């Protein structure tokens, strides 16, 4: 069961780009259900506060449920069911264009949620009282798409990024050596899909890539800053927890007063790792979205260390889809924001875009508050980029024969074949 709430937070954060506020027809404390998914329910209370987030998976934030979710594909299906139930109740929203945005681990779950939406849009016989969701695009910020590609870039980010080195020579040398070992561990995990190998990757990465960096007093989420715990780096995170646990806030949102809000749940975290499906081969999900003309924006604040832009950029270049070559040949173009600032650079081809954002760490909207509109600007760019460019639209129309997804495209098949 997912409860609509209204905060965003550290590790697990997903924005469904819906206006969940002002739904006039909502009733108080209503339980929404769907014939096709009898095991799922949404408890609804109309908040006066404007809410645009869903907390996922269960047991994160205000979310809870009967079954523990321990893998990305199951979590994606839960969100899909949530959307079906939601749109069934608020069908006027179902007419709108639908975009999914998220950051960090969203590199794993946004593509899978989008994949499910797209899949059922073409296979709706499977669902009674199905509602078509007008999925237009996904946006992923500083995402974790493929550690095998991305983890290679910790040494470059710490030791020779455009912000200059933040570790000394000997630490950098060690980092480069250890990183080679880390990549071997990732390969081992990819081959075995084994929980122990997965754990080894995470522990080794923590010990050898994060710890030396944190020992130097640097912010994992922003190479420009010195501070090395999430609370000292982002003290406002504490306020999210305090606010979300306030009795009046819970009452307002219809949350059981005995419920305690946490931004993360380590049991859930470890369950994902133990399932061995911490990382799934996301390229196939993303390429299938692009094949169906669903646009994909990958963006990255270029001061993040943990999910750094060098690794994200490298992934966009090796990402396997029909446009790999065209994307690599496309020019890098300055990103000029509405205020006229040269705020980043992007590369785009056939609906797939990579945008580097200058002077922002992992939390792009937090770091670029001058334009509180950063995300809106990114969206605008993302939307206009494709719609205003005739040649791109032309190409997209050629592909318009929306290839139906067939059984061999189902996630499980991918899952077994690739990892
Ligand atoms: C950092 O240095 C390495 C080794 O000299 C080089 O291969 C890499 O391209 C450099 N990276 C950046 C971002 O300048
Ligand atoms: C480099 O940094 C590490 C960790 O901060 C420190 O232990 C070491 O003494 C430094 N080495 C040099 C040569 O400054
Ligand atoms: C945090 O940084 C300080 C230096 O600013 C260092 O002494 C300390 O060991 C670091 N703490 C952790 C947990 O890495
Ligand atoms: C609130 O949660 C408590 C503890 O889980 C439970 O006993 C109680 O029935 C819940 N109250 C409501 C109104 O759901
Ligand atoms: C964490 O998640 C588990 C389910 O995996 C749940 O049983 C537990 O109550 C959650 N812990 C907290 C503190 O919410
Ligand atoms: C544009 O850049 C100038 C100069 O760096 C800066 O002062 C201003 O705040 C920026 N405006 C926005 C909207 O980012």
From TrEMBL:
The organism of origin for this protein: Gigaspora margarita
Recorded family membership: Belongs to the peptidase S10 family.
PANTHER family linked to this entry: SERINE CARBOXYPEPTIDASE CTSA-4.1, SERINE PROTEASE FAMILY S10 SERINE CARBOXYPEPTIDASE
Enzyme class: hydrolase
Top-rank taxon: Eukaryota
Keyword check for Protease: yes
One Pfam short name: Peptidase_S10
EC number: 3.4.16.5
Keyword ATP-binding: no
Signal peptide: 1-26
Protein name (database record): carboxypeptidase C
Keywords for the protein's UniProt record, in alphabetical order: Carboxypeptidase, Glycoprotein, Hydrolase, Protease, Signal
InterPro entries in the record: AB_hydrolase_fold, Peptidase_S10
């Amino acid at each position: 069961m997912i409860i609509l709430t209204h905060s965003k937070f550290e590790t697990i954060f997903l924005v469904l780009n819906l206006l969940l506020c002002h739904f006039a027809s909502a009733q108080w404390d209503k339980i929404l259900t769907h014939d096709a998914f009898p095991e799922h329910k949404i408890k609804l209370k109309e908040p006066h506060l404007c809410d645009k987030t869903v907390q996922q998976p269960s047991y994160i934030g205000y979310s809870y449920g009967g079954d523990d979710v321990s893998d990305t594909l199951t979590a994606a299906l839960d969100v899909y069911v949530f959307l079906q139930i939601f749109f069934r109740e608020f069908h006027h929203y179902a007419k709108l264009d639908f975009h999914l945005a998220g950051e960090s681990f969203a590199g794993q779950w946004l593509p899978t949620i989008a994949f499910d939406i797209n899949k059922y849009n073409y296979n709706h016989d499977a669902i009674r009282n199905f509602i078509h969701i007008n999925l237009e695009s996904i946006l992923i910020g500083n995402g974790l798409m493929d550690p095998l590609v991305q983890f290679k870039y910790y040494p470059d980010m710490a030791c020779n990024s455009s912000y200059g080195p933040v570790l000394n020579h000997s630490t950098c040398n060690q980092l480069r050596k250890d990183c080679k070992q880390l990549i071997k561990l990732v390969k081992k995990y990819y081959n075995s899909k084994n929980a122990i190998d997965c754990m080894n990757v995470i522990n080794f990465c923590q010990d050898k890539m994060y710890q030396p960096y944190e020992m130097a007093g640097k912010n994992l989420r922003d190479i420009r800053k010195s501070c090395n715990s999430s609370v000292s780096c982002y003290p406002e995170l504490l306020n999210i927890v305090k606010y979300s646990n306030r009795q009046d806030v819970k009452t307002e949102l219809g949350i059981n007063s005995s419920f305690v809000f946490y931004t993360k749940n380590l049991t859930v975290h470890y369950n994902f790792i133990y399932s061995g499906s911490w990382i799934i081969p996301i390229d196939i999900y993303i390429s299938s979205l692009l094949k169906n003309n669903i646009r994909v924006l990958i963006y990255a604040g270029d001061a993040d260390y943990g999910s750094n832009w060098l690794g994200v950029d490298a992934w966009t270049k090796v990402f396997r889809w029909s446009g790999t070559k065209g994307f690599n040949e496309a020019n890098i173009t300055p990103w000029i924001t509405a205020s006229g600032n040269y705020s980043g650079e992007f590369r785009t081809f056939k609906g797939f875009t990579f945008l580097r954002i200058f002077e922002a760490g992992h939390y792009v909207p937090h770091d670029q508050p001058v334009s509180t509109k950063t995300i809106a600007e990114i969206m605008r760019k993302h939307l206009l980029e494709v719609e205003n460019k005739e040649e791109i639209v032309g190409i997209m129309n050629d592909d318009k024969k929306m290839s139906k997804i067939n059984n061999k495209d189902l996630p499980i098949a991918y899952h077994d074949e690739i990892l």
